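Bit of a strange request maybe. I'm writing a small parser for C-alpha cell strings and I need a real example to test against, not something I typed by hand. Could someone generate the C-alpha cells for this chain?
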Amino acid sequence: MRLPVMLRSAATWKIVSLVFGVFLLASPPAQAQGVVKGKHGDWQVRCETPPGAAKEQCALLQSIAAEDRSNINLIVIVLKTADGKNRLLRVIAPLGVLIPSGLGLKIDDTDIGHAGFVRCLPTGCVAEVVMEDKLLDQLKTGKSAVFIIFQTPEEGIGIPLNLTGFTDAFAELP
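Reply from user aminoacidic:
Good idea to test on real output. This should exercise your parser:
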C-alpha cells in the first residue's frame, strides 16, 4: 500500500512552495519560523503571514528523533494549502537517507505505506503526500506513529511520533 499521490501540478507546487518556504526548518522548532499560536501535546501550531500573502498561514509541527540515534531527526509538518483545498503531510528527513526506499509510516502498528522523497535541499530531504480522509482519521484516532527511513537497503530506522494532541492541533488550522 502506498501513501496517497503527491501533488504534481504547477499551480499547486507554487502554493506549496510558498507555504514550504514559510515552514522549512533547518533545526528543531525552537528556532523555527512563525509564531507559536498553540501547543497540543508535542504538536505546535505555528503561523506566519508570508510576504505578499493575503492571510496568515499555519501549520502543525513536531520535531522527532530516533530513540537509539539522537542525531537522526525528522520534522513533521501538517498543513492546509493556501487555497484550503488540500491537506498535506510533509516530512523533512536528514541528508543521507536512501532516496529509492522512501519514507515508511506505521500508525499504531498498522502499516500505512511509503511515500517517495520529492526533493533534497541543503536542510534535508522532503517527502510529501496529500492527506486523504482515511489518513487524517488514522492520525486523529491513533496513539502513536513511526516513520521509517533507510540509510542502507538493510537498515530501516524507526522514528516514533506522538499523536497525542493531533486532533486538537489540527482543529486550530484555519
